[in-house]
Amino acid sequence: RSSAASDVYKRQDYGLLIEELVQRRDEGVIIPEALIREILRLDAKRDAWNREAIGALYDELMRLPDDAALAAREPNDLESIRRLRPAGPRHLNWDPSEGELVDRLHGAWTNRAVGCALGKPVEGMGMSHEDGRCVGRRRIRRYLALRGDWPLRDYFEARDIGDPETDAWAKNARAHSRSLRSNIAYMEPDDDINYTLVGLGVIEEAGADFDWTHVAGYWTGHIPMGNICTAETQALLNFWNRWARTERGDATADFTRRHRNPYREWIGAQIRADGWAYVCAGQPEKAAEFAWRDAAWTHERNGIYGEMFMAAVIAAAFVEQDPRQLTEIGLSEIPAECRLAVAIRELLEQIGRRPDFEACMDWVETRCDALSPGTVHDQGRSRKGMSPVHTINNALVCVLSLFYGRMHPIEAPAVAVMCGLDTDCNGATVGSIVGATRGRRGLNSPLAERLNDEVRSTVLGFHQVTLSELAERTARQWARLRSS
Predict the structure, then answer these.
(1) Looking at per-residue confidence, does 12 or 217 come out higher?
(2) Is residue 57 pLDDT above 90, yes or no?
């Protein structure tokens, strides 16, 4: 996600407008053809920062009425979300010993890092497009097959083999990644790990009563702006503009998540679920609530639900190990008829019919492109279908990886990476879920050993820390919340 989001195009006013066109269409808004023509008449280069023209078109786009029926099925406030969710267990009454608690948390933290490191060298490859279509999955398979590493079971290697296309990817990986088979010695800085650390940090500082302003304030004081992407960037800019300039009187979550933020249903919130889930291990409802507080100032609708769903699944994974049961628990915390829930239920039907993850991904890609059929015109290129960093398609990758990866600490995150799209995010999420079920002692993973129990991040206060320490600190917060 970081490499895709670093494209200057996505920070230009023009880029925001084009992505908003797709987002509004995804929300079921009927956009007049005349307005679409006006938007597409802009030139990507000449009008990149034409704020007067773009601002007027953007405002007109945002004034269009929502699809009332879809909006009713996809609320943003917690009370309405809970009214629309299915029945669920809410609390699994987990009562671990102190040793078991720390071990399970250590497993979750460690395998999250393993999954993230597995996918990190091919993050950009997983999102790559050709003729407007995402071809990341096919490129990852070719890269691995040519090096004798298909199916993936170890960290990526980056040796040249005389193939110009894949050698170019290998060269880039050698230059930028500390997560290769030849050099990995710790979990290198990554936003997927940063946000898990943030969850722990916010709970340590503010406790169970934290709200979205605690999260925004923590980001401001602890994460460099350059390490924040897409929806998070836009929300934080909105927060700063309203919080500082109006003596904190005009900064609302409604504003920060929506104003000039076309990424509000992308994956950014979903990758932030783990820290909240860890401190609520065994309590899926509480984990989902914490995730809602974290997500609802940067994301809307399925962007929020993705984090709530994953938080509930991860919290439940400390007790439940069956992937179908875990998925049902996650679904029990989000609106039953939201687009994410409908797609996940359809996926569960497909999993029994598809022989392997690739056949299942064929269905996922077709289904998600139908959910987001628009085209993004990007500097003379085009992207058809759902963004590779959308919440829904990446959530489906995570769910199917639990099944086809057999809840194995290496195979499951490896499947998530081989599926393409946002490889490090999905590898991390799936690794986290399986790690929570196994505990550190149960991982039995040479990949975990090669991290040497160490995380390095760009979060102030967590620049260099052991996974053991993180597990112990998280356990203290779990006990603190339980007794409060």
Answers:
(1) 217
(2) yes
HSE-CB of 146 using CA atoms within 13 angstroms? 19
What interhelical angle do 13-26 and 51-63 show, nearest 10? 10
Residue 220 scores a pLDDT above 60: yes
pTM for the predicted model, two decimal places:
0.96
pLDDT of 63 reads 98
Q: Mean pLDDT across the stretch 85-93?
A: 98
Averaged pLDDT, 113-128: 97
* pLDDT band, residue 131 (cuts 50/70/90): confident
What CA–CA distance (Å, rounded) separates 83 from 384? 35
Residues 440-473: tens digit of each pLDDT = 999 999 999 999 999 999 999 999 999 999 999 9
